[in-house]
Amino acid sequence: MVRFPQIYGPGSLSVISKTALAVVVVMATVMDAGLASSASVTCEADWMGLKVSLFAFDFDSTCTQEDTTSLLYKATEKYRSSSQAERKLLDEQWRELGKSYWTGHREVVSKSLSIHANPNSSTFDEKGLRSFLQEVYDYDITMTKEVEASEILKGISKEAIIEVAKDVKLSPGCLNVLNHVNLPLHLISVNWCQGLIHAKIGHLRYLNIFANSLPLEGELSSGHLGKKLTSAFDKEIIFQDLVCNKSTGGSEGISVYVGDSIGDVLALLKSDVGIVIGKSHTFRKVAKSFGIKLLPLQEIQKMSQNGCQEHTIPKQKGVLFEAPSWNEIGFTLFGTRYTPNKF
């Protein structure tokens, strides 16, 4: 998937009370506002979190505050050696590519939804969703070719990637949650540059990155783009393989996937707990159009089983969960084991 920054402008099965649910939400909100220290924050004493055995997540706009694609052209030798005036021209060239992409993307999404979606459907329409995603993928491939033809990403060095990675801003609480996951961390991204991801969060223990690499000519990027992971379908395949390996290994517990966009939707739906973070209007429009239910993340506590122990939840087809922040993800997954601002 081409990633440009958006430039336009059940009855309860648990013993947890409504008050307890409110505590979790309030604590997550307080921590995100920076109004409490980790020493003073506790979850509801009965909530031990979920028994997680597989954890996967997206990178751009999930782990980061913004899409990182717009940093890549700034790592080219041409950009780094240019005058201020020349850099402005390259900035404008990138903006035009982004403008062209998002204009076309909105048109493709709107047209495809009008053909494949039933906005009044109350049941999950997987067939329609897949047809829609295929059309979006076809468009993305076309735009990828335009980026390659422009050669705006030609001449990127590993050293320059390390430098621009310093400008990547991570989402508040993301690293803290990831450091609480005592499991392999499977990052599944359509990002064009795995090196950028590694430069930013490669220090994380157990990190396993699935992403693209920039093809090289000597020690610099050729301007072409790696295409081994480009769509929602590719992400789904990788995540499904991880799930199968987990099952083969006899590992008990649930699978979790965290993502923000329509590129994550199939992997999210394949997971036991698919968590949507961020405020993507397109994602919510697509979810509604194909009968995908979005529930507040704290609803998991109402659905959980096994009393006050480490919980599992029943898998529901076509149901995902919304999280306003990474801290709420941490409180929900790990309960009293989660310490905000620890890392």
TrEMBL record:
Cellular compartments per GO CC: cytosol
Family matches, as InterPro entries: HAD-like_sf, HAD_sf, Thiamine_Salvage_TenA
PANTHER family: BIFUNCTIONAL TH2 PROTEIN (PTHR43198), SI:CH1073-67J19.1-RELATED (PTHR43198:SF2)
Protein name, as recorded: Haloacid dehalogenase-like hydrolase
